[in-house]
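So, could you explain this one?
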Amino acid sequence: MPVCVPGAPAAAAEEAALLLDTGVSDRKIAPLLDRADTMTRTLASNRGYVWTAIGLDSTPCGMGCSFCSQAAKWDVYTASPPLSPEAVVGTAGRLAAGGADFVVLRTTQFYPLDRLLTLGKRVRERIGDAIHLVVNTGEMDLETVKALKGAGFSMAYHVVRLREGVDTGHTVAMRLRTIEAVLAGGLELQYLIEPLGPEHTAEEILTEARRARSLGASGTGVMARVPVMGTPLARFGQVPEAYLRRVAAVARLAYPDGGRHLCVHPPTPSTLRCGSNTIIVEQAANPRDTGSNPGPWRGFDLAAARATLQAAGLTVRPARDQP
């Protein structure tokens, strides 16, 4: 049955239905993957991007999202002290110097705003003005967003998660209020389809793909849910790489005229040939793991990310001397 989402062009909906139908062979959808790849490379002038995320804290969160290792009610995460300001600033500086395009400061839901503002100012001073400083934190009002922008942040990551309000302790309205504040406060928005699991329907996926375009997000893409043992949704497992490629293509075909940073996570090299041009390097506290790690998540570091993009024929930002 064709996917039908209000406001979505019929052709895009039909293509998404084809891509997301697991009964359709990879051979049949190959032209759509190729087209998505060409669209992204044209839109981004063949540029590849590295998104680097620093998890600031692992404070047990009371929101109880069913996929998150840091939710207090699942008791699966080994909490550790928040990173010191010196560690955050030093790590951000090394990532920026190494060729990262984005430095993300990621927190749990209720991280203190004053601490985040102070860190933002110090990190911005360290990394300079050419690199996006991104905030990934809890719900925000307009005054908070303005304060974050004043502290040096240029972008926010915030989305309506798949099955928001069902698998999360938030509501769609809460998430949209924050997104409205982000845009009204002058920050760019990054918006991925996430956290994608095997149980999500084509309609759910395309709804969020189209939402990225309706909001004018400067980046889009897809993040697969990583099953963490002890969390309720772990029983569903993880989507196969072949399906992740298809969803990446859907994200591009649903947003053909913008969102030049099309991200896929976890890092999946094959998606860089079907619409994605952005991959993520994570370190420290991580909701996809059961503990914090001073090194890169699963050993995938900045050098590996840059090499992966270049192997796919994408250009990357030159590394520079330490700021």
